[in-house]
Design brief:
This protein has 156 residues and is α/β, with parallel strands linked by helices. The strands form two sheets. The protein has a five-stranded parallel sheet, with helices on one face. It has a two-stranded antiparallel sheet with strand order 2-3. β4, α2 and β5 form a beta-alpha-beta unit. It is globular, with a radius of gyration of 17 Å.
Length: 156
């Protein structure tokens, strides 16, 4: 189960609202409460620092997603910039997924080469669906997979 631990501010600087509920970052205690409320592994999304990774581990999360929500948090660093330091801190204790601007097989290759366990692809799939339904998704994933395989199989 995934849960956002961060949330972008609204354009006016106030907390964003969803269905009239003010959104705010989750505290470590909030996150631990979510972890305790389910038998499913909880994946914390919005991790961009060792501090965030430490909080996710302390709360008992089953993994983390490095993400700035496709640049919705404009002041955040790119997830790949934070990945090496977070990878070194996590030391394999939980999977690390990378989100945001993973659009090609090359993007996936870079993330995995830097230590990600896996990548998340969202917006490009939405575009593919909009443009050509399931055929667009199939074609997109086939191309990304072919590009990735070409890179992965030729690495030294």
């Amino acid at each position: 189960m995934g849960v956002d631990i961060d949330h972008p501010f609204a354009g006016n600087g106030d907390y964003d609202e969803v269905d009239g509920i003010p959104m705010r970052p989750m505290s470590t205690d909030d996150l631990a409460d979510v972890v305790c409320a389910t038998k499913l592994p909880v994946i914390a999304k919005g991790v961009l620092s060792v501090h965030d990774g430490r909080r996710a581990l302390a709360a008992g999360c089953g993994g983390i997603v490095l993400s700035h929500h496709n640049n919705r948090i404009e002041y955040a660093i790119p997830p790949l910039m934070a990945l090496p330091e977070i990878r070194d801190f996590v030391k394999g204790r939980m999977p690390i997924f990378v989100d945001c601007e993973i659009a090609t097989g090359m993007d996936a290759y870079k993330a995995l080469a830097l230590g990600a366990t896996a990548v998340c692809i969202g917006r490009p799939l939405m575009t593919a669906i909009k443009e050509n339904d399931s055929v667009g998704v199939r074609d997109y994933l086939n191309k990304a997979t072919d590009d990735f395989a070409r890179l992965w199989l030729t690495r030294v």
